[in-house]
Design brief:
This protein is α/β, with parallel strands linked by helices. Helices cover 43% and strands 13% of the residues. β3 (95-99), α5 and β4 form a beta-alpha-beta unit. It starts with a strand and ends with a helix. Residues 5-369 form the Aminotransferase class V domain.
Length: 395
C-alpha cells in the first residue's frame, strides 16, 4: 500500500471507530424521523436529546437547551454573526468587530454584511498572531452589535485571550461570538468561564463525522433564524435532524474531553520534535505564530526561497499529507491572509507549510517527515534563481 502520513488534522480528521459504532444504528435500524411520535422516531428524539446534554456538559453550558445543532461549523458561524446583527438592526446595531485572522466562515460573512451596509472593524494581530483585548475595547462603539473572535487559529494555531475579551464585551453589554472550531477537542472549552454568548464547534475537527456542527447560544440571547422551515431545534433551525451525525458528534466530543490531557501531551511532543529537527537541519526557516499561546498539534513554518505548492506536491509524492494553510489550496494565488497579518512578506508567506498532528501519528513519522523535508527543500532551492542570487550576494 502507498505510504500515508496524515499531518493535516486541522483540515479534518478520520472518524474514530467507537464513534462510527455509536452512529451505525441510526442508518438502517433507527431511521425514524426524530419529530415523529411512533417508537423509532421517539428513540431518535431521545438520542438527539442525550447528545445535546452531553455536548452541553462538555463545553460547560448551563443547560442542554443552549445547544443548537447545525450542518457545519461554517453554518454555526454564519448563524451567530448574521443572526446577531439582524436581531440588533431594529435597535440600531450595525457594527461588527472581528479579527484580521479569522477563518473564511467568519471573514467572508463579515465581508458580505459589509456589502449589505454594516460596518466592520478588523482588529489587527501582533507578529505572534495574537489579538490585543485593548484593541477590541477601543473599537467598541454605541452601535456595535457583535464581537466575533476565534479561540484558536486554524493556520498558525494561536490561542486568543478569549476570557479577557469576554470581560470587555460583558462590561460594554456587547454580544460576543467565538469560533472555537479549531480549539474543540484540543484544549478545554468552558463557555461560562470564557464569558462568551455564542460559540461554534464542528464535529469533523475532533474525530467525529463531517456535516454536523453546534452553535451554543447562551440562554436569553436572541438571534434571527437563518434557516426557515419546520419546528426542529425549538423552531430556530429547521431541517430534519442528522441523528447519526449528532450522535457521532456527541460521542467524539465526550471521548476528546475524557482523553484530552493524554492526547495533547502526545501531539505536543510530536510537534515539538518536528519543530526542533526542522530548525536544526534546514537553514532559512521561520516558525510562524506564538509557541506559548498555541494549540498543541499545530506547526506552521516558512521556508525562504521555496514555493509552498511545489513543496506540498513533492511531500504528497512521499506519502505526506500536509497543507499550506492558505487560500492557495483553493485555487487562489494570494498568500494566506493570516501570514500577511502577522507581517510576513508575500514571498515568504508563499513558502509556508502547516503541519497538524493527530492521535495516530508516530515519532518515526516525524523522522521520515523531516528527512523528506530536508531533501525536498534543498532540491527546490537548488532550482531557485533567487536562492542562487542570495548565495552569491552572501559569499
Ligand atoms: C474548519 C473550521 C471552520 C469550518 O467548519 P466546517 O464544519 O468545516 O464548516 C470554521 N472555523 C475554523 C476555525 C475552522 O478550523
Amino acid at each position: 500500500m502507498e505510504k500515508l502520513i496524515y499531518l493535516d488534522h486541522a483540515a479534518t480528521t478520520y472518524v474514530k471507530p467507537e464513534v462510527f459504532e455509536a452512529m451505525k444504528p441510526y442508518f438502517v435500524e433507527e431511521y425514524g424521523n426524530a419529530s415523529s411520535i411512533y417508537s423509532i422516531g421517539r428513540n431518535n428524539r431521545k438520542a438527539v436529546e442525550e447528545a445535546r446534554a452531553t455536548i452541553a456538559r462538555c463545553i460547560g453550558a448551563s443547560e442542554p437547551g443552549e445547544i443548537y445543532f447545525t450542518g457545519s461549523g461554517t453554518e454555526a458561524d454564519n448563524w451567530a454573526i448574521k443572526g446577531a446583527v439582524y436581531a440588533a438592526r431594529k435597535k440600531g446595531g450595525k457594527h461588527i468587530i472581528t479579527s484580521a485572522i479569522e477563518h473564511p466562515a467568519v471573514l467572508e460573512t463579515c465581508k458580505y454584511l459589509k456589502k449589505e451596509g454594516y460596518d466592520v472593524t478588523f482588529v489587527p494581530v501582533n507578529s505572534e498572531g495574537l489579538v490585543d483585548p485593548a484593541d477590541v475595547e477601543k473599537a467598541i462603539r454605541p452601535d456595535t452589535a457583535l464581537v466575533s473572535i476565534m479561540y484558536a487559529n486554524n493556520e498558525i494555531g494561536t490561542i486568543q485571550p478569549i476570557k479577557a475579551i469576554g470581560e470587555i464585551t460583558w462590561k460594554h453589554g456587547v454580544l460576543f461570538h467565538c469560533d472555537a472550531v479549531q480549539a474543540a477537542g484540543s484544549i478545554p472549552i468552558d463557555v461560562k468561564d470564557l464569558g462568551v454568548d455564542l460559540l461554534s464547534i464542528s464535529s469533523h475537527k475532533f474525530y467525529g463525522p463531517k456535516g454536523v456542527g453546534v452553535l451554543y447560544i447562551r440562554k436569553g440571547v436572541r438571534l434571527e433564524n437563518l434557516i426557515h422551515g419546520g419546528h426542529q431545534e425549538r423552531g430556530k433551525r429547521a431541517g430534519t435532524e442528522n441523528v447519526a451525525g449528532i450522535v457521532g458528534m456527541a460521542k467524539a466530543l465526550e471521548l476528546a474531553v475524557a482523553n484530552m490531557d493524554q492526547y495533547s501531551k502526545k501531539i505536543r511532543r510530536l510537534r515539538d520534535k518536528a519543530r526542533e529537527q526542522i530548525l536544526n537541519r534546514i537553514p532559512y526557516v521561520r516558525v510562524n505564530g506564538s509557541m506559548e499561546h498555541r494549540l498543541p498539534g499545530n506547526l506552521n513554518v516558512s521556508f525562504e526561497f521555496i514555493e509552498g505548492e511545489s513543496l506540498l506536491l513533492l511531500l504528497d509524492m512521499k506519502g505526506i499529507k500536509a497543507s499550506s494553510g492558505s487560500a492557495c489550496t483553493s485555487g487562489s494565488l494570494d498568500p494566506s491572509h493570516v501570514l500577511l497579518a502577522i507581517g510576513l512578506p508575500h514571498e515568504i508567506a508563499h513558502g509556508s507549510l502547516r503541519l497538524s498532528f493527530g492521535e495516530a501519528n508516530t515519532e518515526e513519522e516525524v523522522d521520515y517527515l523531516v528527512n523528506c523535508l530536508a531533501e525536498i527543500v534543498e532540491r527546490l532551492r537548488s532550482m531557485s534563481p533567487l536562492y542562487e542570487d542570495f548565495l552569491k550576494a552572501n559569499k
